[in-house]
Design a protein that fits this description.
Number of strands: 0
Radius of gyration: 31 Å
Order of helices and strands: HH
Strand content: under 5%
Helix content: 40-55%
Number of helices: 2
C-alpha cells in the first residue's frame, strides 16, 4: 500500500512538473513572438552618411613588395 502511494505521489509530481515546464515554455514563446527584432539585413539599408569607411588613397594604390612575380 505504501508503495502504491509513493508511486502515485511521484507520478503526480512528475505530471505537475511537466505541466509547469510546458506553461513556462509557452509563455516564453509568446514573449519571443511579441518582440519585434530589427531589420533582417540592416547592412543593406544604411542611413545616409553611415557607409563603410574607405581606405586612404595611399593604401588603396599600394603595390606589393617582394620578389614573387
Amino acid at each position: 500500500m505504501e508503495t502504491a502511494i509513493t508511486l502515485l505521489a511521484a507520478g503526480l509530481l512528475i505530471a505537475l512538473g511537466t505541466r509547469l515546464i510546458h506553461r513556462l515554455n509557452a509563455e516564453h514563446d509568446a514573449r519571443i513572438a511579441a518582440h519585434h527584432f530589427g531589420d533582417p539585413y540592416p547592412s543593406l539599408s544604411r542611413p545616409p552618411g553611415h557607409s563603410h569607411p574607405r581606405p586612404p588613397e595611399r593604401i588603396a594604390h599600394r603595390r606589393p613588395a617582394g620578389t614573387w612575380p
